[in-house]
Amino acid sequence: MTSLNQNQVNGKFSCNRGHTDGAGHNTQDWQQERQDRIASLMQQLEQGVAGIQSSEDFKRWLKVASRFHTYSLNNQVLILMQFPTATRVAGYRTWQSLKRQVVKGSKGINILAPQPFERIIEDKATGVEEVARGITFKTVSVFDISQTEGEELPSIAPGQLQGEEGVELYRRLDDLAEREGLKVTHYDLLGEAEQDPSYNGYYLPGSKLIYVKRAAQVQMVKTLAHELGHHFDAGREGSPREERETVAEAVAFVVAAYYGIDTTAYTFPYVAGWAAKREGAEIIKGVMTRIQQTSHRMLDLLEVKDTEPKLNE
Ligand SMILES: [Zn+2]
């Protein structure tokens, strides 16, 4: 199953959400129901991600992704200095193997390739030979994708969510961010979103700032829930990026589903992409507890407002 059952999303559970329903409902039942609901959403997530990962498109994408190096920090700096807008960089022959050609006259980006060497050193006095090993660097040229032409690379980038529902949830998330001392801005301080159109937001814990790119309401709800997911993820520190992104996105998926918003079209490919570094289901299982705890915490905090007396409204 790759899409949420609307009845489930809009069913009795989300209708009850947020109301104190003092009559009949005791807190324990309610917590248990929520736990079951989160567990069932997790199952949908696992199945959805597995579905994408077994598709032909995804396999093709993986093959291509494996041809691109992760460059050392030094080389990343060299690339950015020479070609600030670089997004995907590879050598001449790698581009050829991907059925793309470097455009004639393109200026290569010079990076340093490590060259391990061995040298035999003879001790003149004793005649004993020793092998000395070391590393030198030689300059090699690489090219950005924008300097090449040919076949399109396969993409599994999640599409932007469309729709104008979720005004109320956005307001609550925004309010929660404020209570946490976080400022939500639509101004892209880092210029990340300009450079990479697939960027929808970011969270800067040090500056207590969340950036949400302006988009359709549903997409903005999803982005803000994702960034808050990072904020409330207690296991964030020291955790690898693919795990952090899986937690944040899964939390956004759960929180949105609680408010009747289906983010599967974005969430499933997003998690599938990050999880591709390892077996997808394995990553999700590994961070399940973090997803559950973070979702619970956020859902609790989002509902606080309802039990408070309203002064002005
Ligand atoms: Zn993220």
What's this entry about, in short?
The protein is of the alpha+beta class and 313 residues long. It contains 13 helices and 8 strands.
Account of the protein in words:
There is one protein chain. The chain has 13 helices and 8 strands. The relative contact order is 0.14. It has a 3-stranded antiparallel β-sheet with strand order 1-4-3. A 3-stranded mixed β-sheet has the order 6-8-7, covered by helices on one side. Helix 3 crosses helix 11. 49% of the residues lie in helices and 16% in strands. The protein starts with 5 loop residues before the first helix and ends in a 6-residue tail after the last helix. It has 313 residues and is an alpha+beta fold. Bound molecules: zinc ion (ZN). Zinc ion is lined by residues 226, 230, 245, 248.
Give structural attributes:
disordered C terminus, alpha+beta, 313 residues, 8 strands, single chain, 3-stranded antiparallel β-sheet, 3-stranded mixed β-sheet, binds zinc ion, elongated, disordered N terminus, 13 helices
Which cofactors or ions or other ligands sit in this model? zinc ion
What is the CA-atom radius of gyration, in angstroms? Answer: 25 Å
Q: Say what oligomer this is.
A: single chain
Discrete helix count: 13
Q: What's the number of domains?
A: 2
Major beta sheet, specifics? 3 strands, antiparallel
| Class derived from helix and strand content | alpha+beta
Q: In percent terms, what proportion of residues is strand?
A: 15-25%
Helix percent reads: 40-55%
**Distance between the first and last residues' Cα:** 42 Å
Mean pLDDT: 83
Overall shape: it is elongated
